Amino acid sequence: MESMLHITTLHYLVLGAALFLLGVIGVLTRRNVVIVLMSIELILNAVNLNLVAFSRMWGGLHGQVFAIFVITDAAAEAAVGLGILIAFFRNKETVNIDEVNLLKW
Amino acid sequence: MAPVATPFFFYLLSGIMLIGGILVITRKNPVHSALALIVTLLAQASIYLMLYAPFVAGVQIILYAGGIMVLFLFVIMLVSIDRSMRERQFNSQWIPGIIAATALGGLFMAVFTKGNDIFPEHALPMVENDNTQQIAMKLYGQYMFAFEIASLLLLVAIIGAVVMAKKRI
Amino acid sequence: MGQILDYIKSYLSSSQTPGAAGNMFWVLVYILLVFAGLSVAVIAMNWLERKILAHMQVRLGPMRVGPHGLMQPIADAIKLLLKEDIMPAEADGLIFWVAPFVVVLAAFTTFVVVPFGPTHAITDMNIGILFMLGVSSLSVLGIVMAGWASNSHYPLIGALRSSAQMVSYEVAMGLAVVSAILMTSLNAEGTGTLSMIGIVQAQLAQGEWFIFKFFPLGLIAFFIFAVAMVAETNRAPFDLAEAESELTAGFHTEYSGFRWSLFFLAEYSAMIAVSSIAVTLWLGGWLRPFPNFLNNSTWDLVFSLFPGVTFLLFAAMCFYNALRMPKHPLFRVQTIGLAGFGVVLGLIGLVLFIPAVSVRIQDIFWFSAKVAGFMYLYIWYRGTFPRYRFDQLMRMGWKVLLPMGLGVLILTASVALLQQKLWHQ
Predict the structure, then answer these.
(1) What is the CATH class of B1-87?
(2) Chain A touching partners, 3 or more CB pairs below 8 A
(3) Quick check: helix, strand or coil at residue B90?
(4) pLDDT at position B152 over 90
(5) What residues of C are in contact with residue B58 (Cβ under 8 Å)?
(6) Ordered alpha helix ranges (H), C115-256
(7) What mean pLDDT do residues A39-63 have?
(8) What are B90's strand-pairing partners?
């Protein structure tokens, strides 16, 4: 109980890991491309949480700077991913990821 | 001032985040998923505030909740979601997926229980007052090159998105 | 009991905002005060907008309810609260229900950091301006939710337009804000600030409002912001999201009664919020005109008279109009009402002449006066500009304002760097 009430870095890491797992499950099991992309955002956020928690632990700001870089990456990823999604929807009239099978034979 | 990192807020916010995350991956309607994800992101911004990272929290609110998620909602409204909502929601490989995720979770648990003493108990003191200025110093000093590359990445992303989404160029 | 009193009193000697001092009682008091002031401002705006628009179009505007329609906003509020609350059958219930609250919450939360004076803010944040921009950008989520959840075509198109518009203009707005923040770093240490109070203090220290800084760079940045903020609040001439001639009412077509009034409240609060950003960043926030130049005790006295004189002028206007009222007995109640309103305003004005009050109220007065100027501009735009077409709007945002913002940012940075170099020699 004592360890429950005293918030340490480990608590944040466990939270980050849980979010990461949720994201992984979403990416692996969902069929809707939009939700898969959102699960990727969840994964990136879990990483960010860890970075900021470590930055707090060591008292430096490198983790926070990296978190900002990860957010930049997420923005780029979302823009390109949604662009691909729109192109895909225009060709196939669906957002179902199982039907992306042109390269599969 | 009283300590900010009170356990109550940590558990409240992490509860919100986890429930939001579960809703994201289980909802049938992508709009509901996106809204759940926004709640998760805002709760995470609050957790950043608890970790003495106000600038990252502000960037999180502006970029994620105000920018990226609006983009998501915009695209969800552009594509027709009626058909995909009537279909099966989980793909055929969901059993291997769950197994892989569980294995990953087990790995995390092992690392965290074994590595309990790797992480120091007490966080080092950190000043909150000039957080933004300090981050700017780091970003435009030590990480200047990475910063430039990030801007290049964004340029590539813009061009890529336009090429992908435009019918005729 | 004594402890609580001590706790309450302990703030009075502090020279910080209640949030920064960590005094929860005064935080609560300030929140209530800001909320009350905001509600009064929205009610006043409702009446003023109708009156001013009417006079611009050579009409009278509301005249029936109360003298010169002064009770019209209250009548409207009662009407809205009594209306039936309709929810479309095919609507997404939860989201439809939550959307107005999201919009209102986003509009009100921004006021946490608005500095009405050096100590008159709910709190002062290290990331103040970032927080304001971020939270005010959340209101677009509420609009999208409302438009989508209505499950109807016009609201959906309105929401799509609104989200595209707000995301586009946020970029130009951010660039303009950055160039103003850059100016705060022009001091001996060379470190700027994002705190709203810090930005105004930087203007005081540099002896110049940022609108005049590096003329015309500050002015151009201000202009970009002033255009972008109209687009950001979905007001005419950029009110495509609720263009009544094309989309009936845009994203809130399906809303009625209380929920609709929440959207109304949020729109006007958002207007006040972005205006206070503009006032804080470029127009010196709570500073009175020429705080460094005319700073002897005579001028202090002269400027401290302004709040009282303003209210006395309002009172005089009421009396004048009461005299002009038709002398018919049917108008007697209205005449007495108007004169009574004038008496109330005059008494407030007289109270504001007491030195102890006027010292405390002065900052708030100057801030509100500047924001009121912006509110008038909003109404003026609505009365005079024709609505933009959507492609014109997008072209304006991405091809005019964005390059202008980038250019101003680069030029400001170069000039600031040059000045800093000269300084250190």
Answers:
(1) mainly alpha
(2) B
(3) strand
(4) yes
(5) 127, 130-131, 134
(6) 128-137, 139-149, 153-184, 196-206, 217-232, 244-247
(7) 88
(8) A30
Which residue segment(s) compose the domain that C241 sits in?
2-287+354-424
The domain ranges of chain B are: 1-87, 129-169
Residues 83-102, chain C: which have Cβ within 8 Å of B? 92, 95
Question: CB distance from B70 to chain A under 8 Å?
Answer: no
Output the pTM of the full model: 0.88
Which tokens go with B26?
């289980």
Q: In 10 A of CB C81, how many CB atoms?
A: 11
Find the residue in A nearest to B109 (Cα): A14
Which residue on chain A is closest to B159 by alpha carbon?
A80
Name the residue in chain B with its Cα closest to that of C164.
B74
Scanning A21-80 for CB atoms below 8 A from B yields: 21-26, 28-32, 34-35, 37-39, 41-42, 45, 48-49, 52-53, 55-59, 61-62, 64-65, 67-69, 71-80
Q: Among C380, C139, C354, C177, which Cα is nearest to B66's?
A: C139
Q: Evaluate whether residue C320 is within a structural domain.
A: no
Q: Give the separation between CA A25 and CA C136, rounded to whole angstroms.
A: 33
Interfacial B residues in 91-150 facing A (CB < 8 Å):
91-94, 96-98, 100-101, 104-105, 108, 112, 116, 119-126, 131, 134-135, 138-139, 143, 146, 150
Cβ contact, residue pair B101, A28, below 8 Å: yes
CA–CA separation, C365 and C371 (whole Å)? 10
pLDDT score recorded for residue B125: 64
Give the total number of structural domains in chain C: 1
Residues linked to residue A32 through DSSP beta bridges, in sequence order: A96
In a domain, C329, yes or no: no
Residue C92 lies in a domain: yes
Query: Which CATH fold would you assign to the domain A2-95?
Result: Helix Hairpins (1.10.287)
Q: Do chains C and B touch (3 or more CB pairs under 8 A)?
A: yes
Confidence of residue B40 (pLDDT cuts 50, 70, 90): very high
Question: For C264-277, how does the pLDDT look when each residue is reduced to its tens digit (9 = 90+)?
Answer: 888 899 899 999 99
ipTM for this model: 0.87
Q: Pick from B70, B52, B68, B72: which is nearest to B60 by CA?
A: B68
Structure tokens given for C205: 């220290």
